[in-house]
Design a protein that fits this description.
Blueprint (H helix, E strand, L loop, with lengths): L5 E4 L2 H5 L23 E4 L18 E3 L22 E2 L11 E3 L8 E2 L11 E3 L21 E3 L19 E4 L19 E5 L21 E4 L16 E5 L11 H8 L5 E5 L8 H22 L4 E7 L9 E3 L3 E5 L2 H4 L4 E12 L2 E3 L4 E12 L4 E11 L8 E3 L3 E8 L10 E8 L14 H9 L7 E12 L4 E2 L27 E2 L1
Parallel strand pairs: 1-2, 2-3, 4-6, 5-7, 7-8, 8-9, 9-10, 10-11, 11-12, 12-13, 13-14
Antiparallel strand pairs: 14-22, 15-24, 16-23, 17-22, 17-24, 18-21, 19-20, 19-23, 25-26
C-alpha cells in the first residue's frame, strides 16, 4: 500500500454507542507502519498508545483519532516542514488519553478549539512560537492535570477570565508575548500556580492588584517595572528573575523592591544586562552589594541556601572585591587576627569575560565554572564547585554578536557545616570560561584540579580575563561600592580599603 493517500477507519459503535452496529475492523495492536505519502488519517478508536514510529508527516494534512487510546502521538521529535496546521479542531476531545500536545513553531496555527479543556488527561500543552495565534480559548471545564502551559512567543493579547479553571499545580510561560497588555484578575485564583514567566512582554506594564493570592508561586520571571508591584504577601516566592534592558540609576533598588524581597522567601535573584555598552558599571556594583545585604538577611531569617547573580557590560572588578587576579585563580591566606570568631557565610565571586564575535541566540549560555578548595588549620581539605552563568535574557529571533567585555557577579553560599573562620587556614578559588557550558570536574585536590583546568579548550571568542573573590561573613562589614582603576597585582594581595576614601554610599554586609 505504498501509494495509499487516504485511510479512514470509522467505528459507529464507538461514536454513537449502538450495540447493534458492531465494527468489523479488529486490529487490537494497531499498525507497525503507515505509507509515507499518507495525507489523510481518520481512525476512530485507535487501539495503541502511540502511532507507528515511522509515521511520516511530510504530506499529512489531517489527522483524526477520535476516542482513541493514544497517550503519545509519536516517539522522539518529528519535523513537519510542510505543516499546514491552522487549528486544533474540536475533535481533539476524542483523545481521551492524550498526555502531551506539542505544536510549537506551527507558524500558521490560528485557532484552538474550546474543546481542548475536555482532554482531562492532558498534562503538557506547548504552543510556543505559534506567531499567528492571537487568542487562547475559554476554559469552560476544570483541567486539574495540566502541569505546563507554554504560550511563549505567540500573538495573544489577553488570557481568558476562565484561566482560573487550571486549578492543578501549574507552570505558565508567556515569555516574549509582545502583544500581551494585561493579565485577567482571575489569575490570582490560581492557588496552585508554581511558576510564571512574563519576561519580554513589552506591553505588559502592570499586574492585577490581588497577585498576593498566589500562595504557591515559587518562580517569577518579570520585565521592567512589573516585579516591583508584587505585594509583600507573596511569601512563597523562591526565584525572581528580572530581565532588564535599561540604564539603572542609584535608585534601582527602591524601598518598595527592598520590602518585597525581604518579605518573600527568595533563594535566587538574577539580573541580566547583556550587550548594552552604555550602562554604568558603578550602578551595578551597588545593586550587587545591596542584594548581598538583603540575601544575607533572608538567609538568617529563613535558613535557606540563597544565590544572587548579576551580569552587565564592563571590564572592571568592583574595588570592594579584596582579592583580585589577572590569572584564573585567587589564593587567600586567612589571618587569625582578622577572622577570629567570625561566621563564614559564603563567597562573592566576580569574573570578567572577554567576548569577540561571540554568537548570541535564544539558547545562548556561557558557564564560568569555579572550584573552591578550603584548607583547615588541621590540614583537612574541603572542596566544592559551582558556576557563574551568563545567558540570554530575551527571545531573539535572529542571532547577534557580542564584542565587548562583560562582568558576572555571583554569590555562592558555603554549605559545608557551620564553620567559623577559626577553622580555616586558607582557600583557593579557580575559574575557567569554557566555550558554552562547563565540564564535569572531578574533585581530587589542588594539583589534579589545576591539571584538569590546563587541559580545557577555551574558545577564542570567549575567554576569562580577570577574577575576584570576597568572603562574606555574618558580622557587618563595610563594602566600598566603587570601581577600581588600579592595576591588578599578580601576587593577589588583599586590597584593603583606605578608611579615608570610603564614599558616603557605603553598604553594610
Amino acid at each position: 500500500m505504498c501509494n495509499l493517500r487516504f485511510l479512514k477507519l470509522y467505528d459507529w459503535t464507538r461514536r454513537f454507542g449502538d450495540p447493534t452496529n458492531i465494527s468489523k475492523v479488529h486490529l487490537p495492536f494497531g499498525l507497525n507502519s503507515l505509507p509515507n505519502g499518507l495525507r489523510y488519517l481518520n481512525w476512530h478508536g485507535y487501539p495503541s498508545k502511540v502511532l507507528p514510529s515511522n509515521l511520516s508527516l511530510e504530506n499529512l494534512v489531517e489527522l483524526e483519532l477520535f476516542d482513541s487510546n493514544v497517550e503519545q502521538l509519536w516517539e522522539g521529535k518529528k519535523n513537519v516542514p510542510r505543516s499546514e496546521i491552522e487549528e486544533i479542531p474540536s475533535s481533539v476531545e476524542g483523545l481521551t488519553n492524550l498526555i502531551s500536545l506539542d505544536v510549537s513553531d506551527c507558524s500558521r496555527l490560528k485557532h484552538i478549539s474550546i474543546n481542548i479543556c475536555k482532554v482531562k488527561s492532558l498534562r503538557y500543552l506547548y504552543l510556543k512560537n505559534c506567531s499567528k495565534l492571537e487568542y487562547f480559548p475559554e476554559i469552560l471545564e476544570t483541567m486539574e492535570r495540566l502541569e505546563t502551559l507554554d504560550i511563549s512567543g505567540t500573538a495573544i493579547k489577553e488570557l481568558p477570565l476562565s484561566i482560573e479553571h487550571l486549578n492543578g499545580p501549574l507552570k505558565l510561560f508567556l515569555r516574549g508575548c509582545k502583544n500581551l497588555e494585561t493579565l485577567p484578575s482571575s489569575i490570582s485564583n490560581l492557588a496552585s500556580l508554581i511558576e510564571l514567566d512574563l519576561s519580554d512582554c513589552s506591553k505588559l506594564d502592570k499586574l492585577p492588584v490581588n497577585m498576593g493570592n498566589l500562595k504557591s508561586l515559587e518562580n517569577l520571571s518579570a520585565g521592567r517595572g512589573v516585579e516591583s508591584q508584587l505585594p509583600s504577601s507573596t511569601t512563597s516566592l523562591r526565584s525572581l528573575i528580572e530581565c532588564l534592558a535599561f540604564r539603572p540609576s542609584s535608585e534601582f533598588i527602591t524601598s518598595e523592591r527592598r520590602n518585597t524581597w525581604r518579605n518573600t522567601r527568595l533563594t535566587k535573584l538574577d539580573f541580566m544586562f547583556t550587550n548594552s555598552p552604555k550602562l554604568i558599571e558603578k550602578a551595578f556594583s551597588n545593586v550587587f552589594a545591596e542584594s548581598l545585604q538583603i540575601i544575607k538577611q533572608m538567609r538568617t531569617k529563613y535558613q535557606k541556601e540563597v544565590r544572587v547573580s548579576i551580569c552587565y557590560p564592563g571590564s572592571k572588578i568592583p574595588e570592594w572585591f579584596r582579592h583580585q587576579s589577572h590569572t584564573s585563580s585567587v589564593n587567600i591566606q586567612l589571618s587569625t587576627h582578622n577572622c577570629s570568631n567570625r561566621k563564614f557565610l559564603g563567597l562573592a565571586l566576580c569574573a570578567v569575560i572577554a567576548f569577540k564575535g561571540y554568537r548570541y541566540t535564544e539558547e545562548f549560555s556561557v558557564g564560568v565554572p569555579y572550584v573552591c578548595c578550603f584548607q583547615t588549620n588541621c590540614g583537612d581539605r574541603v572542596t566544592y564547585k559551582g558556576e557563574l552563568t551568563f545567558h540570554a535574557d530575551r527571545n531573539y529571533k535572529e542571532s547577534i554578536f557580542i564584542n565587548s567585555d562583560h562582568v558576572i557577579l555571583g554569590y555562592h553560599e558555603y554549605s559545608h557545616g557551620k564553620l567559623s573562620m577559626d577553622d580555616l587556614a586558607s582557600f583557593k578559588v579557580m575559574f575557567k570560561a569554557p566555550k558554552d557550558s562547563s565540564p564535569r570536574i572531578p574533585l581530587r585536590g589542588f594539583s589534579k584540579i589545576e591539571d584538569l583546568f590546563r587541559g580545557l579548550d577555551t574558545s577564542q571568542s570567549c575567554r576569562l580575563k580577570y577574577c575576584g573573590v570576597c568572603p562574606i561573613y555574618a558580622e557587618p562589614e563595610i563594602i566600598r561600592t566603587s570601581i577600581s582603576d588600579e592595576k591588578f597585582d599578580s601576587t593577589n594581595q588583599d586590597l584593603v580599603p583606605d578608611p579615608n576614601t570610603i564614599p558616603e554610599n557605603k553598604l553594610t554586609l
